[in-house]
Amino acid sequence: MKLQDESIGDLFDTGLFIDGTWVRSSSGDTRDCLNPADGSVVATVDEAAPEDATRAIAAARGAFDEGTWPRTPVAERTALLATIADLLERDKEKLARIETLDTGKTLAESRIDIDDVVSVCRYYARLAAIESDRLVDVGRPDVISRVVHEPIGVCVLIAPWNYPLLQISWKIAPALAAGCTMVVKPSEVTPLSTIAFVKLIEEAGVPRGVVNLVQGSGAVLGSALTDTPDVDFISFTGGLVTGRVILETAAKHVTKVAVELGGKNPHIVFADADGDDSVDQVLTGVFLHSGQVCSAGTRLIIEDSIADRFVAALAARAEKIRMGDGLDPASRTGPLVSMAHREKIERYVALGVSEGAELVTGGSRPPNPELERGSFYLPTIFDRCDRNMRIVREETFGPILTVERFTTEAEALRLGNDTEYGLAAGVRTADGARGERMVRGLRHGTVWLNDFGYYTAAAEWGGYKRSGNGRELGPAGLSEYQEIKHIWHNTAPTAAGWFDND
Ligand code: NAP
Asked: What stretches pass through the bilayer (predicted)?
């Protein structure tokens, strides 16, 4: 692998990590990873071929079936996770730099991501350590009945490009804690921080074959990774279209799949929560990371009586957002991840205009000459939207806010649930009883009341409806990687006696 930025070079080895060794892609294919802020090449990495993915699965299968890791005492497994967390902290600045160069997000955001990854590793180290068998009273003194957790087996872990390190850590940490072996596939668009992470996991002393890494195109590797009986669990985070393909493919083998998919998340503002803080929260909720956040609050649903003033204040703030290279401390948001993604956003903006939405601000690339080489796009607000518009229904995954208005609480709730997705929602109101009615009525996996965007390692994350199934983080995020076994132990064996003939 070639690396243009010497300051991060020591976090890398070579391309793919299979069966405890860094190897080249068997096809010899490579990919240039571009800095979205200026189009420069950050690194050139190996691109795995399907045969590499098959070898990686075989290595993980061997490590699970014959290796030590699934049978290693939990204290040793959690100690390894704690060491990984220490190494992440040691290399935090380098990792943050890698993430910014690869994704375009600001260094401040990347640092928060690394802190979160550390907290996820430490959380699962603690949780797995305290997990114990459950004794079941079967009403017989001669029987000991226990329910125990065992590692589910070989896992394929597939992550998207928007939070590469964070998303993959939500999978790797519980998988390691549970005693699984795995094949990790980052997005081909942003593989660098995952390569560095696997390098740290190697340094921490993970046994051979437990963690394998194949970066490369999903379209090329997809079937080798998912259309196989040798995998016990697939954990996928990405878009709805890819999620469906994986679910259909895995169904052939009855492989368990957890999918964390997109969102079209409402942020509902009642008139009694009017004010600068609410404007600020709506702004941050949608435009952080240039809107490339699965839980971004892309639908503002606002009480009609305050809508005009609120939207004007929001537009004024949006126009002042400082865009720039994520490495520049003055930047408050970076570019979109790629030129191709910006083109997608431009198509959605053109669609919004043609659908009759009122363009309040944005709707173009920034005029600043110093941003010309990057894939930047202005924060964009569309007012007077309705749910028949595709920009309201579909996940645009960029800096586009749509505004819908309501007059009653029932209407607000109906609009908030009027989406095929169900990942996250926000409610802003000063009325406690109404807030409680709203958070219970909204069919979304996370609901924020008078706040937006927060999560924690100890609380489950996941979607209702087409935002996915399964959960990451929290105790349920560990359970995904476990089989449950009931052990019935008769301490005073006798004949069954059912077929006795007297
Ligand atoms: P994507 O296109 O669905 O890709 C996600 C991952 O799947 C990538 O690693 C991709 O590889 C891989 N992939 C593509 N085709 C595949 C196939 N046939 N078989 C197996 N893997 C395949 O999604 P994305 O554009 O990277 O990410 C954006 C989406 O992720 C958004 O919808 C966002 O909402 C969602 N997301 C959800 C959450 C959540 O927690 N629910 C969190 C973050 C993001 P390549 O990149 O190499 O093609």
From this structure: none
Domain locations in the chain as residue ranges: 9-261+468-487, 266-449
Q: How far apart are CA 112 and CA 93, in angstroms?
A: 11
**Which DSSP string corresponds to 169-231?**
HHHHHHHHHHT-EEEEE--TTS-HHHHHHHHHHHHHTPPTTTEEE--S-HHHHHHHHHS-TT-
Q: Which of 47, 99, 188, 260 is catalytic?
A: 260
Cβ atoms of 379 and 360 within 8 Å: the answer is no
266-449 maps to CATH 3.40.309.10: yes
Confidence of residue 483 (pLDDT cuts 50, 70, 90): very high
Average pLDDT over residues 356-385: 97
What is the residue with the minimal CA distance to atom 22 of ligand 1?
218
Distance 337 CA to ligand 1 centre (A): 13
Indicate if the pLDDT at residue 470 is higher than 60. yes
Say yes or no: do domains 9-261+468-487 and 266-449 share a fold. no
Tens of pLDDT, residues 150-206? 999 999 999 999 999 999 999 999 999 999 999 999 999 999 999 999 999 999 999
Residues lining ligand 1, Cβ inside 6 A: 158-163, 167, 185, 187-189, 217-219, 222, 225-226, 237-239, 242, 245-246, 260-263, 294, 395, 397, 423, 463, 467-468
For residue 241, give the ligand 1 atom closest to its CA: 3
* Ligand 1 site-directed mutation target among 158, 338, 444, 466, most atoms within 8 Å of CB: 158
Helix axes 164-178, 192-204, angle to 10 degrees: 30
What is the C-alpha separation between 385 and 396, in angstroms, rounded? 15
- Specify the 3-state DSSP secondary structure of 392: helix
Beta strands (DSSP E) in 295-443 are: 299-303, 358-361, 380-383, 400-406, 424-428
pLDDT of residue 2: 47
Q: Specify the CATH architecture of the domain 9-261+468-487.
A: 3-Layer(aba) Sandwich (3.40)
Predicted pLDDT at 1: 44
Percentage of the chain beyond pLDDT 70 is 97
User: Which protein residue has the closest C-alpha to ligand 1 atom 35?
Assistant: 238
Rounded to a whole number of angstroms, the distance between the first and last alpha carbons of the chain is: 78
Q: Which of 29, 33, 155, 161 gets mutated to test ligand 1 (max ligand atoms within 8 A of its CB)?
A: 161
Is 465 within 8 Å of 422 (Cβ atoms)? yes
483 is catalytic: no
Note the pLDDT tens digit of each residue in 78-110: 999 999 999 999 999 999 999 999 999 999 999
